């Protein structure tokens, strides 16, 4: 039985790495798949719609990413189990990104960058970490790890999830009924939500207007948005409008409704917006392939599958 690598622009790297790790494996890259009946497990990232259903003996799909919305875009996706990517390499990188951006805005770095370009030596008041309340939407694998790191730096951390959660040192909120209370005392909003029918367009003007304005703290310049989950969860025009009105002080966006971000997007020129090209947590081929082969090994020896996606919830 063969393995398939499909969809990623790093497919050749994955294939090379997998062949080095397991030289006896029959590993094929789509579209050069040979006999479709041979394919048993697929490693997939944005596969072309309708292709995966053409493998009659496919048993599992392993997602190259932690997010699986790229698979659900295929309306003909076969109903085999989907395993999503959970790995310390990816988690560590996301923690770095969230921590970096949180510190960047707490320490008003975008203003210092502007001052530097103007040869302007000027002190700006900054809050200490313990004065800042970071609200994380999504306390899953990545949200929890980020929450721990921010707590360790002294930030006040709160989290919002679909189902009720408990986490040491983190004030937890769940569901639509607790969303407003969560937002009302959030200074820096971090989204690590998956893209699902429920989260589509959630971060809009309405939601951003509910963030704490904290007039009482002279060192907090205003609310900040950090989105490293999925671009479809945000409404870009609303974020720009809130930056314009002062409802948002700054934003760090790793993901966008349209990727790559179009060259004429007003986000590019905004001096208090940090843009990264959807690489907050870009894992290495070595880690991804090791994960894929480990899971294939587990399935081949009849061990229970891990990290299986809940298809009804969409993540
Ligand atoms: P998890 O599935 O572990 O966590 C998802 C979290 O989101 C859970 O806490 C879940 O709540 C919450 N959630 C989902 N739907 C809702 C909802 N409707 N309302 C409130 N909360 C909701 O995912 P990960 O932490 O592993 O990854 C999160 C996302 O990060 C991925 O789906 C992906 O889109 C993105 N990502 C981005 C990367 C990048 O480089 N930019 C890299 C990797 C991932 P509950 O706990 O109740 O289930
Ligand atoms: C992921 C991603 O979902 O990189 O892992 O976006």
Question: Could you explain how this protein is built, in words?
Answer:
- The chain has 315 residues and is an alpha/beta fold.
- It has two domains: 2-87 and 283-300, Rossmann fold (3-Layer(aba) Sandwich), CATH 3.40.50.720; 88-275, 3-Layer(aba) Sandwich (Rossmann fold), CATH 3.40.50.720.
- It contains nine helices and twelve strands.
- The protein has helices at 11-21, 69-72, 88-106, 109-117, 141-152, 179-184, 205-208, 236-245, 285-300; strands at 2-6, 27-29, 39-44, 60-63, 82-83, 133-137, 156-161, 170-174, 188-191, 224-227, 250-253, 273-275.
- It has a seven-stranded parallel beta sheet. A five-stranded parallel beta sheet has the order 2-1-3-4-5, covered by helices on one side.
- The chain is elongated and about 65 Å long.
- The model has no long low-confidence stretch (mean pLDDT 97).
- The site of NADPH dihydro-nicotinamide-adenine-dinucleotide phosphate has 32 residues, from helix 3, helix 5 and strand 7.
- NADPH dihydro-nicotinamide-adenine-dinucleotide phosphate binds at residues 65-67, 90, 94, 138-143, 160-163, 165, 192-196, 198-199, 228-230, 254-255, 278, 280-281, 315.
């Amino acid at each position: 039985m063969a393995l398939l690598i499909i969809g990623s622009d790093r497919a050749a790297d994955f294939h090379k790495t997998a062949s080095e790790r397991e030289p006896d494996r029959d590993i094929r890259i789509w579209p050069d798949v040979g006999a479709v009946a041979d394919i048993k497990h697929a490693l997939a990232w944005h596969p072309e719609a309708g292709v995966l259903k053409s493998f009659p003996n496919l048993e599992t799909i392993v997602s190259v990413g932690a997010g699986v919305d790229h698979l659900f875009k295929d309306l003909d996706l076969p109903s085999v189990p989907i395993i999503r990517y959970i790995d310390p390499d990816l988690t560590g990188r996301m923690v770095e990104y969230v921590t970096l951006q949180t510190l960047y805005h707490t320490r008003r770095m975008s203003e210092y960058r502007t001052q530097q370009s103007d040869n302007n030596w000027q002190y700006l008041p900054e809050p200490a970490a313990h004065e800042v309340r970071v609200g994380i939407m999504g306390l899953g694998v990545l949200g929890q790890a980020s929450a721990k790191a921010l707590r360790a730096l002294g930030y006040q951390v709160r989290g919002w999830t679909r189902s009720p959660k408990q986490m040491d040192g983190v004030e937890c909120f769940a569901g639509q009924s607790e969303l407003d209370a969560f937002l009302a005392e959030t200074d820096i909003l971090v989204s690590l939500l998956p893209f699902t029918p429920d989260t589509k367009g959630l971060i809009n003007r309405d939601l951003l207007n509910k963030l704490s304005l904290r007039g009482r703290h002279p060192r907090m310049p205003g609310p900040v948005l950090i989105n490293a989950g999925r671009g479809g969860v945000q409404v870009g025009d609303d974020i720009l409008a809130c930056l314009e009105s002062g409802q948002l002080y700054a934003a760090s966006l790793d993901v966008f409704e349209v990727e790559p971000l179009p060259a004429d997007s007003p986000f590019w020129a905004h001096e208090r917006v940090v843009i990264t090209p959807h690489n907050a947590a870009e894992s290495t081929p070595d880690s991804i392939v090791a994960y894929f082969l480990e899971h294939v090994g587990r399935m081949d020896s009849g061990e229970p599958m891990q990290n299986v996606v809940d298809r009804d919830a969409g993540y």
